[in-house]
Backbone:
C-alpha cells in the first residue's frame, strides 16, 4: 500500500485536498459501528496503517483526518495475510500437511499395508524436498517398525500431522516476527482475539465446496428451467485443476469458470442448453 492510500482509509489531514470527505473506513464505522471489518493481506500494508491500527486495537478508537473521534468498540476486525508462504519449505510443508490430512480421512477405505506404503512414499519424497526437517527422518524410521508394536497406523499418522502442524506454526510465528518487527500490532491482536493459522484445503474440502457452488449454480439456472450435476470425470477434473493447498479455493473458482460456467453461458446464448434437461 502506498503512503497516500492510508488517507483513503482514515481521511486526509486538514488543509489537504479531499479532507472534508473523511476516510472510507472511518466513515463506514461512524455510519454503522456494528460492522465486520476485513483487512486482507495486512502483511502488505504501509507502516502508517499499523500505527493507526495499534491505536484502534489498544484504545478502541481513532481520530480521522478532520479530528473527529471514531469508536471501534463495537466492530469485529479480521486481518488476514499470507505470511511465510514465500518460503519454499513452508509451501512444501503446507502441501504435505494437506496430503496427510486427506490420507487421514480416507485411511479406513484402503488396505493398511497399501496405506503404509503410500505414507512411506509420501514422507520419503517430502524428506528429499526438505532434508532439514528432522521430524520427517524420525517418522520414516518409525514407519519401518510400527507394525511390530501395538501402535496403529492411524496413531502414527496423527502424530505426524500434529508434528508438522507444530513446525508450521513455529515457522509462521517467526515469519510474523520478522515482517512486523518493531510493530505492536501482532501482540495486541493476540491479546484481544488471537492469531489463527489456517490449514491448506484437502481434496475432500474441495468436494464440499463444489457441492456449495453447485447449489448456487442451480439457483442461477432456475429461470432457464434446467439443472447441473457434477459427476465422474467432470468432478475429478475440477478437483484436480482446483487443488492447490497454498492458494485455497481460488484455483477451484477459476476451474469452475473455465470448465463449467463459461461453457454453460455459451450454451444458453446459443440455445444448445435445452430447458428441462439435467446437465452433467
Residues:
Amino acid at each position: 500500500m502506498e503512503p497516500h492510500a492510508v488517507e483513503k482509509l482514515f481521511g486526509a489531514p486538514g488543509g489537504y485536498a479531499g479532507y472534508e470527505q473523511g476516510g472510507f473506513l472511518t466513515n463506514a464505522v461512524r455510519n454503522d459501528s456494528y460492522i465486520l471489518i476485513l483487512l486482507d493481506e495486512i502483511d502488505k500494508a504501509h507502516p502508517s496503517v499499523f500505527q493507526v491500527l495499534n491505536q484502534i486495537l489498544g484504545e478502541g478508537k481513532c481520530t480521522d483526518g478532520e479530528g473527529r473521534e471514531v469508536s471501534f468498540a463495537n466492530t469485529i476486525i479480521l486481518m488476514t495475510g499470507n505470511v511465510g508462504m514465500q518460503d519454499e519449505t513452508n509451501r512444501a510443508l503446507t502441501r504435505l500437511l494437506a496430503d496427510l490430512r486427506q490420507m487421514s480421512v480416507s485411511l479406513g477405505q484402503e488396505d493398511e499395508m497399501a496405506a503404509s506404503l503410500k505414507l512411506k512414499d509420501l514422507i520419503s519424497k517430502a524428506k528429499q524436498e526438505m532434508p532439514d526437517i528432522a521430524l520427517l527422518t524420525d517418522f520414516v524410521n518409525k514407519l519401518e517398525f510400527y507394525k511390530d508394536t501395538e501402535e496403529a497406523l492411524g496413531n502414527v499418522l496423527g502424530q505426524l500431522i500434529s508434528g508438522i502442524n507444530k513446525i508450521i506454526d513455529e515457522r509462521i510465528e517467526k515469519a510474523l516476527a520478522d515482517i512486523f518487527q518493531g510493530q505492536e500490532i501482532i501482540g495486541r491482536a493476540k491479546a484481544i482475539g488471537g492469531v489463527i493459522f489456517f490449514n491448506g484445503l484437502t481434496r475432500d474440502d474441495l468436494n464440499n465446496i463444489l457441492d456449495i457452488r453447485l447449489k448456487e449454480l442451480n439457483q442461477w439456472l432456475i429461470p432457464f428451467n434446467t439443472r447441473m450435476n457434477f459427476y465422474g470425470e467432470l468432478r475429478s477434473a475440477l478437483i484436480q485443476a482446483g487443488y492447490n493447498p497454498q492458494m485455497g479455493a481460488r484455483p477451484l473458482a477459476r476451474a469452475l469458470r473455465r470448465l463449467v460456467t463459461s461453457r454453460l453461458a455459451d450454451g444458453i446464448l446459443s440455445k444448445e442448453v435445452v430447458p428441462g434437461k439435467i446437465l452433467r
